[in-house]
Amino acid sequence: MSEKHTPVLRESATFDRLTIQEIQRAAETGIYDIRGGGTKRKLPHFDDLLLLGASVSRYPLEGYREKCGTEVVLGTRFAKKPIHLKIPVTIAGMSFGALSANAKEALGRGASIAGTSTTTGDGGMTPEERGQSQHLVYQYLPSRYGMNPDDLRKADAIEIVLGQGAKPGGGGMLLGMKVTERVAGMRTLPIGVDQRSACRHPDWTGPDDLAIKIAELREITDWEKPIYVKIGASRPYYDVKLAVKAGADVIVLDGMQGGTAATQEVFIEHVGIPILPAIPQAVQALQEMGMHRKVQLIVSGGIRNGADVAKAMALGADAVAIGTAALVALGDNHPRLDDELKKIGSAAGYYDDWQNGRDPAGITTQDPELSKRLDPVEAGRRLANYLRVLVLEAQTMARACGKSHLHNLDPEDLVALTVEAAAMARVPLAGTNWIPGQQY
Amino acid sequence: MKTIDLSSASVRELNQALHGNVQDREWVVTHPDGKHNLAVGVNDAVSIDIQGHAGYYCAGMNQKASITVHGNVGVGVAENMMSGSVRVKGSASQAAGATAHGGLLVIEGDAGARCGISMKGVDIVVGGSIGHMSCFMAQAGRLVVCGDAGDALGDSLYETRIYVKGTVKSLGSDCIEKEMRSEHLEELKELLNRAGFIEDPASFKRYGSARQLYNFKVDNASAY
Asked: What residues in A contact B101, CB-CB < 8 Å?
């Protein structure tokens, strides 16, 4: 008597369902897929590192008694007025246009409660954002949308954007549904156009020109403001060296896990490098120039919890920046929106169509009715809570490593779980003294 | 009148003096010798005469001031200017008037590549010719060229209006020649008068955006 077998369907590893779906989508539309957020592929990340808590060979600090400092000063190299932050977690640049005015205000409110900075984006500075941000970093981008000297003088720091982790080498775009009257007015564009942002600055080329550009911005602001240079991680060793040589006060290094408002899916997933291997390269560049801790390093791209903060700082960062996580803290992808998200072809936890302006959370939209859904006071409070948790978690781990300040964490506090992570982060594989590429 | 001699004073001292509580309405800068970042970020209705050549970003982000350079200028003269006026008696390098939002930039000689790149409302009048990729992604304002224009004029143009008297080597994507109507002749006449150039507006051609690339369409993919 023969048994009846239920057939097992075998999915191709090369042509899996997602790949097949994308081929079919491309065949139907003739255009690439655009979405928001960062890379979704699994990458070597901070989860592949572990912190080494103290024991006999190291002395821990008492968790509920002994202080673990968190303050950071940014822009100590040249600026007359460096930025003093209470915590080393900043809010990354995100534009009004990509985000609603309420979302920008909420970011400012949350950051200010927590004692940290927030950052403008492509499109200029809004009064809501300036008014609610104790420390506001003004981005200087290739498009120069909304750039003006009055706002430059109002800023607490200037961030020259050369690229971002989600799309190093790529320009930006804001699709027409988000180019409303107010957004278009701030950017001097016709209402409803698919707004393109250039990938190169219009009036300088290369590091020698960048040095003159930095000098110009210093002259305009009378050498008061710290000048950051933001780099999308691809060749951080060389890019950091050139930016420091050009006169940067602060380097912002964004890994490929960093989010975007709207970029081609293929670009997000296939260009740039993760933040994990980028940090050691940047730190090496700073150390070789004698500039580590003199030119501060802010890293971003996939920071989610206090462990990520502690590990990034142990690798040599002075601070971190969050973007996607901050939006989630405001209310992005909240489970209560699941039904509405399903109506637009997504679901809570998956929503990434930040480019099309239909966000039911009222965050990545310019629709007045949707925008109203986000209460900037409540959302700001949620962000402040989240920032506090990030710092408390990082402090807990730093104390366990015997560190009285987050900046005292160092690579010796880390080991890696995989050979790849050990090689990229330049820390030993757990249980060994082996750092691939450095010892044999 | 206040004179600052850059053979002894620094660029920092010049700019700091121009940013302070400015009492003098007329300023003269001597021995500029091609230095960068001269008279940047000025926010007062003062007159500044730079007596020689200037380097990069001269008059950058100018507001209200009238600045004259008695020589040539480097990259990015009057970049991101908001208001006021800048006159270059000689020629200008690349990216003259880049991203500028307002005011009047007059270049009596030639301007290099990318003149008026991403301009956002400034008026630029060039007595001579301009280089390639001028008015790339230009958004608003007017560019007048009394000589010739190089390759790819007005590529990816938004709403800037371009007037050229001489030849245009080639037009960029989405830039087309447009009809010169009476209102354009009037507009051009006024711009030439303000710039101090004696030219016949009827001898110019007008170029502007075809507005075909304002929104992404698969059919336009070959234009990028």
From this structure: 148, 188
